[in-house]
Amino acid sequence: RPLEGDLEREAEGEVRGTKTTTDDWGVTLQLSHKGRILGLGNQVTGGVAYDGHHSRFRQTEAEAEFEPRGNSVRVQPTEAFETAVDVRTDQQNVGVFLTDTLDITEWLSLTVGARYQRVHIKIRDESGGNPGPEGGHTFQRGSPTAGRPAPPGSA
């Protein structure tokens, strides 16, 4: 059964808005050579890859009140929006790779290779008021690989 009488509603809160923009780009250069080693078929492939990204994240907020609106409630800012967070991240990735596939028989091949990856990430405060998250980080690693490709028609 419905409540009787008039209810008074008063509540405070915050209203927040966020915006994220991201740009990505990249390029890869790969060279392959087919030949023979000790009379066996062989293919060497090597290359370099580069990609970059930058993102900007901004969050604004303002004090607000909840106002009745029909059967629901709307949030009404009571003051101007202020920038709470405004950061930019830049990331650059560089990879160098090399693989060699040796055809031991017509149906059996062996592949070995390696990849070196270097990633640099930089974070900057764009608001000028929050230098805490600023910094740069670099990660690098080499990854070996080995395998036996499946013969044609085995899948």
Low-confidence stretches: none
State mean pLDDT (0 to 100 scale): 89
From the N-terminal CA to the C-terminal CA, the straight-line distance is: 67 Å
Count of separate DSSP helical elements: 0
Could you give the order of the helices and strands? EEEEEE
3D shape: elongated
Percent range for β-strand residues:
over 45%
- Rg of Cα set: 29 Å
In terms of structural class, how would the helical and strand content be classed?
mainly beta
Per DSSP E runs of 2 or more residues, the count of β-strands stands at 6
Instruction: Please summarize the sheet with the most strands.
Output: 6 strands, antiparallel
Helix content: under 10%
Task: Describe this protein's structure.
The model has no long low-confidence stretch (mean pLDDT 89). Strands 1, 2, 3, 4, 5 and 6 form a 6-stranded antiparallel beta sheet that branches. The radius of gyration is 29 Å and the shape is elongated. The protein has 155 residues and is mainly beta. 0% of the residues lie in helices and 74% in strands.
Please outline what is shown here.
The protein is mainly β and about 160 residues long. It is built from no helices and six strands. The protein has strands spanning about 10-35, 40-70, 70-75, 80-105, 110-125, 135-145.
Describe the structure using short key phrases.
elongated, 155 residues
Which helices and strands, and how do they pair?
Elements: E1 12-37, E2 40-69, E3 72-77, E4 82-103, E5 109-125, E6 135-147
Antiparallel strand pairs: 1-2, 2-3, 2-4, 4-5, 5-6
